[in-house]
Write a structure and sequence with these properties.
Residues 1-12 have a biased composition (Basic residues). This is SRp25 nuclear protein, isoform 3. Residues 13-26 have a biased composition (Basic and acidic residues). The chain has a domain at 1-31. It is built from one helix and no strands. The protein has one helix at residues 2-33.
Length: 59
């Protein structure tokens, strides 16, 4: 039965290490991305800068 306990601890250590790596990658991506968008407060960033009405023709 000891072998099962050792295997369980090994799996748990691997899971924790993978989670640490994911957290580190998440932080690195957040730092790379930089500050938030430059949209005005209260404005939806998905539609910022869109002008309603007919659009100019594509040249």
């Amino acid at each position: 039965m000891q072998k099962q306990g050792a295997l369980k601890r090994q799996k748990e250590r691997a899971r924790q290490e993978k989670q640490r790596e994911k957290d580190a990658n998440r932080l690195a991506r957040r730092r790379e991305k930089g500050p938030g968008s430059n949209a005005a407060p209260g404005e939806d960033p998905d539609i910022a800068g869109i002008v309603p009405g007919p659009q100019p023709p594509i040249e």
